[in-house]
Amino acid sequence: MVNSLQQPINLPTIANNKNFILPTMTARKKTQSLLQFGILAAIFLLVNALAAYFYYRIDLTKEKRFTLTPATKQMLQNLDDVVYVKVFLQGEFPAGFKRLRNATLDMLKEFRAYSGNRVEYEFVDPFEGIADPKQREDIFNQLSEKGLEPRRLVENKDEYSEKIIFPGALLSYKGRELPANLLLQQLNTGAEETLNNSIALLEYNLANTMQKLQRNTKPSIAFLEGHGELPIDEVRDVMVSLSTYYQIQRLDITKNLYIPNKFWTVIVARPTKKFEEVNKFKLDQYIMNGGKVLWLVENMATDMDSLQSNNGSFLALDYGLNLEDQLFKYGARVNFDLVQDLQCSKIPLAVGRDAFGNAKQMELFPWSYFPVITETNSNHPVTKNLSAVLMQFAGTVDTIDTRKSNITKTILLTTSPYSRANSAPIRVDVNDVRTKPNPKDFAAGNKPVAVALEGKFPSLFKNRLDPATLKMIDTLPDVSYREESDYNKMVVIADGDIIRNDYDALRGQTSPLGYYKYTGETFANKDLVLNAIEWLNDDNGIIAARNKDIKLRLLDKPRVAETKLQWQLLNILLPLALVLLFGLGYNFWRKRRYG
After folding, report:
1. What is the pTM of this model?
2. Residues 202, 323: one domain?
3. 408 and 320, same structural domain?
């Protein structure tokens, strides 16, 4: 009997026995699969671990719309508490507002990422589920009082309807709350362009508000008095707007020995009386010690009331402000002239008379002394994405060669190409509107009416003070005489009325700054003033986000209409064709492989 262990082995039989080899091959494949899975899992965990320490995001858009400026990133990284953002862009909106909502959401995600999750947000509809008109009115008033600007949406689908929305946000930080309006108001600008400009400014509006929330106290701004400046009632609207972020005071320079350095900015709003040397010195040393000034200065004495009281004409004469040498020293010159522009607003005039000599009706006529400024510097944060600005009896401003002091001068606003400047003395006659102007008389080209200056400003009083005066100055608290400033900024606008709001003394009513009652238009005067204040007081660079530019890429509507059918067929048939080709190809491959 032969032992089973000594039986001969039939190698061909074993080789052909698949059941014998299969377990070995299966085990090997399982081992390889587990090894591959383990390697992939380790790589995944390693990448996540590295991402926690080395943060990086890639912006593939051409204009880098999702790339935050360095100043914004630094501000977000410096947050030591949570900023809560409540955005009122939830609900049923047209496509344009949905685009604004999505862009806001994307921006807040970026903010949250760079802040280390210290930015929290939610999107709400303030009127959701509220049908009672009284409750809706209360919510409307609450949001308006907090600084959010309402907009009226007109829907005309099945039936005409109106809807009030608040395209903005409320930001809260350490018990403080500030508004951020996210939709611009732009005159003579299409809805798509306005929306695009609003999206471009999302980073700035949100970052600027967050920066202000981090301040424990509001900075102070002073409206100068003592030289016939605009009264409080005629600058009330901009004062209310500024008071959201600043402490606003009126400062009579003639009753103070100096301008306190607690004021971040001083606004000189349309003075009409001569500046004595002592008061010019106070302004000069305020600038030398770092103070910012917004000059709203016009040299020519003009007033629409003068037209009514002087048979429709008056002679525009010099105010005699005595500021020309001071502004010249800083790099600008406000000229003794008046601008006329064919791109202008209108004034009402009586047309026809009845038997008793009374006006039958009023008609609006173009008034070239009220230029509508649309030529803005798109490369400067003060005027970037700025809508039309209304000026009244504006002058021109020139820049002076100051290469020795290295002062940078930037033109902010100019008139249209169809304008001219008339030098003093000037006869202003309202009857000129009844004569059609000759365009050849208005071909002087763009005239600058606003300029930004920055650099180290030299003192007007350098080498002009005697030792006794200098010794007396040294005795004043918080005052040190300087002959040159450190890096500083100022803005000069050759129109004082640009900041003036209409005021009805009989009714005690203040009109919004920029609103022109005769045409019902609202110009961007307030935006210009607020932007100038922000630029002057921005020491951290947040204002640079205003220069972000997002190009509007619209479809060619006529071409879309022509090729609509072929694109619809392509979108329907192409996916089906691809699936069919894949199926046929796969079956062909299987037959070749296993047939």
Report:
1. 0.80
2. no
3. yes
